[in-house]
TrEMBL record:
Interacts with non-phosphorylated form of RAB8A; phosphorylation of RAB8A at 'Thr-72' disrupts this interaction. Interacts with ARMC12. GO terms for molecular function: DNA binding; GTPase activator activity; protein dimerization activity. It comes from Biomphalaria pfeifferi. This is TBC1 domain family member 15. Residues 605-654 are annotated as: Disordered. Signal peptide: none annotated. One of its GO terms (cellular component) is cytoplasm. Keywords: Acetylation, Cytoplasm, GTPase activation, Phosphoprotein.
Length: 654
C-alpha cells in the first residue's frame, strides 16, 4: 500500500464464491481481504485476493474482469503460479464510495453474510462473503461517508442517498425531460437500401457486444456508445408503445395473489425405467415431462432423457425402432462429415462460404467454455469433436451454416452426451428451437421481445412504465437471454437443468419469456430505486450474470404463469403468448404432423405435438410443414427443396 493511503477498516476471510461445478480447483472460494481506504483522491472500498497480498502492486487501481484468459501454463512452476495469481487478481475490486449507488445484503438467517455493491453506472460486483463476520462493522464505517436507507420494497436492498442540492435539482430536471419525451420515446431506426446488410450489421454489433461484454477490453468502453448502437443499428427492432390490434391496454392491473410454488425431486433412474413398457415404449409421456419440469433430470440418465426431449428418438418409439433410428443417424452423420472432410484445399479456395464458416468455427471453438474441465487444455480432444460437429452442421443445414453463439448451445449438449453422433443430432434438435432467433428479417427476436413487453404490461405495469420512460421499453437488455437461452446467465451445470425444463414445453412453449419476467421482477427494486437509465440497466443486467438463483427463479416463473392464468381479464394477446387460447380443430389437425428426425413419414403422437423435431437431412420433406416459433405456428412452404432444413427466412448474422 502506498504510504499516503490510510487503512480505515480491514477484514480478512472475505471470499468470492466461484462455480464449484465448472472446475477441479479446490479453491473454488477465493479468499481475500476487504478494506475501507482513505486516499488522496477519495475514500475507497477495495477487495483483494490473498495471493496478491504478498506481492508489490504497481497499480492501485484494482479492476473486476468478468472473463478468463487462457494459456498453456505447464511449461514451468513459475508460469503456473503467475497464471494462478492472474486468474485470482481479475476478481479484485476498487471503487470510490461516492460512486456507490446501492448494495444488497442477505438475510441474517443465511449461513454467511454477504454484500453485493452496485455502482451508479450499473456495475454490479461479485458478492463478498464474510466467513468470519465483519459485514456490519464495514457498513458502520461506510456510514461515516454516505447516507444509507433501506428499500421499502426489498429488505435486502440499501440505497445510498445523495444530498447534493445541485445534483438533486439536476435529477428533477432530468425527470422532467424524461416526462416530456416519454410519449415519443420510440426510437426511429435507419433503414438502408440493402436490408440484408442493415440487418446483419445491426445484429452483429449487438451479438458481439453481448458475447464479448465480459472481456477486459470492453470494460472501459463507454456505455453511452453501446446504448447508441443498440438504439440505432437494429433496423425494424422497435417495439411500439401504442396498442396493437387485439391487445387491450391494462393500466391498473389487480392480479390474483401469486401462488407459492416448490420444486420437486428430479427424474431418477428407477422412476425413468418404470415408464417403459415391455416393448420399450414410454408410457405416460406427459407425466415424464411433468417430473422433468418440476425437478429436472438426474445427471446419470440425462443423456438418455435428452434424446427424447430433443427429437433424437420419438416418444412413442419401441426399443427396436430406436435401434433402427440410431443406425440411420450414425450413417447420416458420417456421410455428412465426409462431405467437408474430403474437400481439397483447391476446392475450398473456390468455396467461399465454407471457408468463411470454417474460420468462424476455428475462432469460436478455441474460446468456448474453456474454464470447464471438459474443454480445458490446449490439446484437449473434445475441442476437435466440438469443431467437427459444428462443421458437419454446416453441411446438414447449409442455409443457416454457422453463426457465433452456436458453440454456446452445443457445448452443454456435448458434455452430457459424450458422444459425437448423439451430440450432433441433439444439437440439431436444440437448434430447431432457437434458429428463428436469427432470422434475416429479425422476426424471431422482434416477436419475443414484443411478447416480453406485452407480458410485463399486464404483470407489472409500474415496472413496464418505468422501463419505457427510461428508454428501455424495447427490452434490448433481454437480447442475450433470448438469443442463446440464458447460456451466459447461469453456471454450466445450471444451464443443463434450465434447458431440460424449458424443453418440456411446460407450462407453455414460451416459458423462457416468463423466466425473463421472473428475473426482472427480482431486480425491480434495484433498477427503479437506483433510478437506472438505459445504459445502467444494460450494465446491471449483464453484471448479474452467474449470480441469478436458478431454483428460486423457476419457482417464481411458474408462480407468475399461474397468477396470469387465473387473471379473468387477461388480454387476448397475452393469452396467445401463454398458450391459453383454444386451438381451432383445423389448425390442431395440421399441427399434429411434424417434420421427422428419423423418418419423413413419421406422424408424431399427441404427446409430442408441442415440439418440433429435427428434420431428416436427405429425406423427402412435405411441401407444407407447420413449424413452431416460440409458441405460435406459421406455415412455411418448402416446395421442392427436399434438402433444405430451414426456410430462407432463417438465415442469420455471420
Amino acid at each position: 500500500m502506498a504510504s499516503q493511503n490510510e487503512v480505515l477498516f480491514a477484514k480478512d476471510s472475505v471470499y468470492i464464491h466461484i462455480n464449484v461445478q465448472d472446475t477441479k480447483d479446490k479453491d473454488a472460494h477465493i479468499a481475500g481481504r476487504v478494506y475501507l481506504m482513505k486516499k488522496p483522491e477519495g475514500n475507497f472500498i477495495e477487495w483483494k485476493a490473498e495471493e496478491c497480498l504478498s506481492h508489490d502492486i504497481q497499480n492501485d487501481e484494482w479492476d473486476v474482469i468478468g472473463s478468463v484468459g487462457f494459456r498453456n501454463d505447464r511449461d514451468s512452476e513459475c508460469v503456473s503460479m503467475n497464471a494462478k495469481m492472474d486468474a485470482r487478481r481479475k476478481y479484485n475490486i476498487s471503487f470510490d464510495v461516492l460512486d456507490l449507488k446501492s448494495f444488497k445484503r442477505n438475510a441474517p438467517n443465511h449461513s454467511w453474510a454477504y454484500i453485493i455493491f452496485i455502482l451508479k453506472d450499473g456495475t454490479t460486483f461479485p458478492a463478498l462473503h464474510f466467513h468470519n463476520g465483519g459485514s456490519k462493522a464495514l457498513l458502520k464505517e461506510l456510514e461515516t461517508f454516505i447516507h444509507i436507507r433501506r428499500s421499502p420494497n426489498d429488505q435486502r436492498l440499501f440505497i445510498v442517498h445523495d444530498h447534493d442540492p445541485e445534483m438533486l435539482s439536476k435529477s428533477f430536471n432530468e425527470l422532467s425531460i424524461f416526462s416530456d419525451s416519454s410519449s415519443a420515446y420510440v426510437q426511429k431506426f435507419k433503414f438502408m437500401k440493402d436490408p440484408y446488410t442493415a440487418t446483419m450489421g445491426g445484429f452483429s454489433k449487438v451479438t458481439n457486444f453481448f458475447n464479448n461484454f465480459m472481456a477486459p477490453e470492453n470494460l472501459t468502453r463507454p456505455q453511452s456508445e453501446m446504448a447508441e448502437f443498440l438504439h440505432e443499428d437494429i433496423p425494424g427492432m422497435e417495439i411500439s408503445n401504442l396498442d396493437e390490434p387485439g391487445f387491450e391496454m391494462v393500466t391498473k392491473t389487480k392480479l390474483p395473489p401469486r401462488p407459492v410454488v416448490k420444486r420437486s425431486e428430479h427424474l431418477g433412474l428407477a422412476k425413468w425405467n418404470s415408464f417403459f413398457d415391455s416393448d420399450g415404449t414410454i408410457s405416460q409421456v406427459e407425466e415424464v415431462k411433468e417430473i422433468i419440469f418440476r425437478g429436472g433430470v438426474d445427471p446419470a440418465i440425462r443423456s438418455d432423457v435428452w434424446k427424447f426431449l430433443l427429437g433424437f428418438y420419438d416418444w412413442d418409439s419401441t426399443t427396436k425402432k430406436r435401434q433402427e433410428q440410431r443406425k440411420r443417424k450414425v450413417d447420416d452423420y458420417f456421410r455428412m462429415k465426409l462431405q467437408w472432410k474430403t474437400i481439397s484445399s483447391e476446392q475450398e479456395r473456390r468455396f467461399t462460404f465454407l471457408k468463411e464458416r470454417r474460420g468462424l468455427i476455428d475462432k469460436d471453438v478455441t474460446r468456448t467454455d474453456r474454464t470447464h474441465k471438459f474443454f480445458s487444455g490446449d490439446k484437449n480432444p473434445n475441442l476437435q469433436v466440438l469443431y467437427d460437429i459444428l462443421m458437419t452442421y454446416c453441411m446438414y443445414n447449409f442455409d443457416l451454416g454457422y453463426v457465433q453463439g452456436m458453440s454456446d448451445i452445443l457445448a452443454p449438449i456435448l458434455v452430457v452426451m459424450e458422444n459425437e453422433v448423439d451430440a450432433f443430432w441433439c444439437f440439431a434438435g436444440a437448434m430447431e428451437r432457437v434458429c428463428h432467433n436469427f432470422e434475416m428479417d429479425q422476426n424471431g427476436m422482434k416477436v419475443q421481445l414484443s411478447q416480453i413487453h406485452k407480458l410485463m404490461q399486464v404483470y407489472d405495469p409500474e415496472l413496464c412504465a418505468y422501463l419505457e420512460s427510461h428508454d428501455s421499453g424495447n427490452f434490448y437488455f433481454c437480447f442475450r437471454w433470448i438469443l442463446i437461452m440464458f447460456k451466459r446467465e447461469f453456471h454450466f451445470h445450471e444451464i443443463q437443468r434450465l434447458w431440460e425444463v424449458i424443453w418440456t414445453d411446460l407450462p407453455c412453449q414460451n416459458f423462457h419469456l416468463i423466466i425473463s419476467l421472473a428475473i426482472l421482477d427480482s431486480e425491480k427494486s434495484t433498477l427503479m430505486e437506483n433510478k437506472f437509465g438505459f445504459t445502467e440497466i444494460l450494465k446491471h443486467i449483464n453484471d448479474i450474470s452467474l449470480s441469478i438463483p436458478l431454483e428460486d427463479t423457476l419457482c417464481k416463473a411458474e408462480g407468475i404463469f399461474l397468477q396470469l392464468k387465473e387473471f379473468k381479464k387477461l388480454p387476448k394477446a397475452v393469452k396467445e403468448v401463454l398458450g391459453l387460447l383454444p386451438v381451432p380443430v383445423s389448425q390442431s389437425m395440421e399441427n399434429s404432423v411434424f417434420i421427422g428426425a428419423a423418418s419423413n413419414t413419421d406422424v408424431k403422437s399427441q404427446d409430442s405435438a408441442s415440439r418440433v423435431d429435427t428434420p431428416q437431412l436427405m429425406g423427402g420433406i412435405s411441401s407444407s410443414s407447420s413449424i413452431s416459433v416460440n409458441g405460435s405456428r406459421s406455415s412455411h412452404s418448402l416446395g421442392g427443396k427436399q434438402n433444405s432444413i430451414i426456410d430462407e427466412g432463417s438465415k442469420i448474422l455471420t
